[in-house]
Amino acid sequence: MGIGEIRGDEQTATLLDAELWRLSDAQLIAGVPAVTAQIHLLQALRVGLVGEMTDRGVVPDRVHPSLKNWLAAHPVGLLSEGEAARIVDLARVLRAQPEVAAAYESGALRGELALAIAAFCEDPPPRMPQERVPEYRKVLIEHTSHGGLGIQGLRRALTKLRDDYGQIPPAEDTDRNEFCASQTLNGRVVIKGDVDSETGEMLLTALSKLSAPVPGPGGEPDPRPAALRRADAFIEMLRRFHDCGAGPVEGGEKPHLTVLVNINDLHHCDGDGDGDGEGGCECGCGGEAGQGGKGEAAGHSSGSGGGRSGHGPGSGSGSAGGLGPQMMWTGPLSRASTRRLACDCIITPIIINNDGVPLKLGRKDRLVPASLRRALIVRDRCCAFPGCGRPAAWTDAHHIVHWADGGETDLSNTVLLCRYHHRLIHDSEWEVFIGPDLLPWFRPPGSRDPDRKPLPAHGRTAA
Ligand SMILES: [Zn+2]
Ligand SMILES: [Zn+2]
């Protein structure tokens, strides 16, 4: 097979011009494998061209820092960065491994198998005698060609070979580990990593345990897509680390993150999603009650005293203090999130007045002491949200009336909620209250039940 064959393949040339609905069944059956073979040949040709560029040191333009970046951008959108990287890697290793290249170009070997074999032979275990390498290469090509061993089988074989010669396989080499967390322009944080198989196993096991779907109160399926459930699971892992980690923990206090927050930003001006639009915002941001519950604290901008002014959405015209809630690493935080986090002090808010001066706020005003947490565990036993029941260790103590609005930190004003339902209570029209039976009750949003008939807490009945 070769480039000549691509030109000479009349079958695919005919198909390119054909009106597909006119083709016979036999033509379809013969056409698909012929196209697959041609695609492979064209891919091999592309790898050959890239290899030639690499050898000659061709620099396609000055805009793209590497051949990989250039490849991913030309033509734009057809190759991901990962695919482009694999093409460049394959092109490079095949130059040094003509036997593997021949098997790949002939169509006997898929690209991923060729890459794995060539990479192994290029960098064999140090204790493997050099003269054995061609032998192993031949055997590996034979066993993987024409639909032999798949990629998993090949990996097993390579792992065993490395093991036999006393080398740590790449999958288990922790020196190759990388983990990056970088902030984007809009304030989010992008996470990227490459870890060894054991770490990956720990991560996947933890994510799988923590990301199980949570059915709704009526048994309806969890509305979160899988990626969101995995993200929630990751958040839960971090939270548990902070709960039992190196930070000072006393009496149930959980001071994890530090947030600089104006006392006015904690007052009840975020609407809490109740949509009743009562009055104007008390904090002087110019916003109105009942509209900011799920949104950004748009009226608040980071002022000149913020120290991290690069993160602020603007400057000057914010709240009287000139500084909306600010986190130490990632900058501004919406008032809605600040209230939820401050509920059980997963953050340590440093409360400041309008002049930016820290105020003394009694610990008893906001922290849930260990004795109260124990009493809450006896009463609620788990996340109290109907149908949830996540274990108490996963829960926050939610203040029904926020402490910043004068709510007491006691049994009559707190309820255990897992992080998911804590967020739901703060950001939606779900409400919680303590009934005459001294137990939590949950009032669903009008969209779910027009009568908003309260539902008993998880594991309780409406008796
Ligand atoms: Zn809360
Ligand atoms: Zn829950």
From TrEMBL:
Coiled coil: none annotated. It comes from Speluncibacter jeojiensis. The keyword Transport does not apply. Gene3D superfamilies: 1.10.30.50. This is HNH endonuclease. InterPro entries: DUF222, HNH, HNH_nuc. Residues 292-324 have a biased composition (Gly residues). Keywords: Endonuclease, Hydrolase, Nuclease. Pfam families: DUF222, HNH.
